[in-house]
Amino acid sequence: MEVSRTLPQQREFPVLIGDRVAVGARRVHVLPTPISSFTVVAPDEPGLQALSKSPLVMILAERMQTRVAGSVGVAHRVPAGMPVVATGPGSAAVVEALLRHGAEQLLCLPPGVSPPEHVVISVQGAAAQDPTLAVAASLLRHIPAQAVYLGFHAEQAPEHARGTALRELLDLRNAALDRHGLDMRTELRTGDARTELLRELASHERSMLVLGHGSLEDLDWQRLADFLEGPVQRPLLVVRPAAPERGEDR
User: Fold this and answer.
1) Is the pTM here over 0.85, yes or no?
2) N or C: which end of the chain has fewer CB within 10 A?
3) Which helix (H) or strand (E) holds 118?
4) What 3-state DSSP class applies to 113?
5) Across the chain, how many H-helices and E-strands are there?
């Protein structure tokens, strides 16, 4: 039997492979997984092989007991399973093309990246909130990392709005645990979301960003390009709602 535990749980009750432990179940909660498989998308065969052997891809595929397919060349349609692309120069255009063709989940990885120990979750648009938390929960069931959800508060906003935002974050934390089994902490940051997210990612060498957005029209493409091609490159998981809005390219 394989059991995934959070880092606080590991510290409270450390065990090693081969130890004898008693296992019991207080309740059974079946969680559907929104991640069915992976398809690596690369411009050439060497890039495909390198990305397919990325430690994070291999660990996720093994622990999820799912397959990893490959697709070479320009993506004219969304492949089956979650697309996996490399970050770096030119990656923003590839990611935009996949999103505009209807990709609902997209994993972007720097070369040879290791599994993260710190996962940052941020959502733009209420419609993307629940799908993003569901995908993040599926990911974190297979990676023992700490998760933090960052909310943002404008500097010029009145103080009473800050109290409302804090209560909403607490409600969101409880809903994530109840609906998806996602144990995360929440933080409210004052200032620009892009700056705060980059600062948070840079503060942990093995960090990852889960970014949810509700509409392509409202997506900050420049901010997305900064995460994909900027100096602070970390694994990035992009999530959008399953049902596209009218007028969006598909």
Assistant:
1) no
2) N
3) strand 118-124
4) coil
5) 8, 9
